[in-house]
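histidine kinase
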Amino acid sequence: MPIVRALLNLRSLHWKIILLVSAACAAMALTVGVLVHESTLRRSMHEGAVKAVDQLDRARQEARRTGRPAPLADPAGLPDPLLRQVERHGQGTYYEDGPPAPVYWAAEQKDGQLYALRTDMTADLLTRQALDRHLWKYSLVTLAVVIPATALVMELPARRLRRVARTARRITAGDLQARTGMGRRGGDEITEIAATVDAMADSLRDRLAGEQRFTADVAHELRTPLMGLVTSAGLLPEGEATELVRDRVRVLRDLVEDLLEISRLDAGAERVEPRRVPLAELIEDSVARTGLPATVTATGAPVAETDPRRLDRIVTNLVVNAHRHGATPVEVDVSGLTITVRDHGPGFPPDLLAHGPQRFRTGAEQRGRGHGLGLTIAQGQAKVIGARLDFRNRPDDGGAVAEVRLPDGADDR
């Protein structure tokens, strides 16, 4: 399904936004966690130092009042950083992180005596560790809530974007009636894109309709005087000049007939009249009617349910195009429901392979002369009968290859 494929596409905008939100939440949680941890640690160290100094003072005062031994200390049992502070300032504090337990030292040099006392900081350490665990736990809980919520919130705009993309693909495929149907509600960027795509489709439809009307009008307007010209050419006395005039009149007549056929194809006025036909015999007759040499090879005796007149038009145009723009020998192969026409010329130009045949363009000078409507008509007739027409060049020895694949439903053997 398209939606499932879109969700599985890890490079989609949907997943990029989820990843960005997740990274932002993780970075925020980490920053807050580090700040809270450092702030709590500094406050704990400050309070521990104050508490250790206070306990040392009270122990000395208690010793003077009660006559108990004062908290004298052996310098050998004190941490070196604490001794350096006492030597420098006469007093000092130092945090020692175990083992066996974390303690805060307080020491003071007075009257030639060194007093020292340590305060147990285990409870403080456990409190800070519990705070760190809670920070990590609730950060993960927040991510577990934010990420699915972001995915759900992003699904609506992602669905709208996929709808715009599907509409654009339909327009590209030739469906000029396709529209996003979003209107102008919402006023966000997606709505603006959808409105632009709809406006583009309207403009493209109107321009193509205008071109089609122009082509049809020109062909119809030319047909009447052309018939008079054909009749007049037939009344001319025989001679070299007459043959030249008649040849040019035939070319002009063929061009007008091609234009009329294209206008009918563009307007969708063509209707299929399918019937059962022996495919190999039909192709042989079509090639014979061109009057051009071509080798027809058939595999088996396939019978197809298709419109023989339109299929004849396709094959005729392909064979004529192969002789006009390619080189002999021209080979026609019938295999099942596939008809392949191949020449041994320079091959199709890259522009035709990339974008398909375009009217009034032959693609390259080496492809010969012509008005470039034959392949356009063949492609249009193939679309009418539901066939697929592909163009390619042979990679080994060159030559253009046109392949007509009739739909599977046409097989009636």
